[in-house]
Amino acid sequence: MDAAASSDTSGIRIEPIAAAHIDSFHDALDVVAREKKYLSMLEATPLPQTREFVMGMIAKGNPQFVATAQDQVVGWCDISRHFFPSHAHRGKLGMGILSAYRSKGLGRMLIETTLRAAQKSGFARVELDVYEDNARAIALYEKMGFAREGIVRRAARIDGRFIDAISMALLFDERGAA
Length: 178
Prior knowledge:
- The chain starts with a helix and ends in a 7-residue tail after the last strand.
- It is built from five helices and seven strands.
- By secondary structure, the protein is an alpha+beta fold.
- A seven-stranded mixed sheet has the order 1-2-3-4-5-7-6, sandwiched between helices.
- Mean pLDDT is 92; it is low at 1-7.
């Protein structure tokens, strides 16, 4: 990380999500979802469902980290292990950052932390889908070692507009130094 990115994130902490973060995480999730640009959801699920998701992630030992500034969640990254036993070596990555905190190196900090935890937890493969028009995220994922695996045509339809997604994956045993 360069000095500029480091100074921009000096007041931000990266930490494992905890029950105390749920309300603030829900708020951040809702703000990013309502941008209708980055997430599959167009608004956060109701708070009880978000609470159930987070507590389930914690109970299952799935890596989920939040970035906090003044005790408020400003970004997150998580990897959900696949449900089927034959696919349990795989996980799906999701992440988001509030707009005021983007382009400061926070995404890289979150994903590096979450990927380290995933590898320690026995994941062999981490997958994600990213909208093809999200060049900043695609560049970050490629820097982190994710490779493009295909295109999901018309993956989403937002406000009547279809958006293709790029399927990407990182295989820990093929990962170079990132």
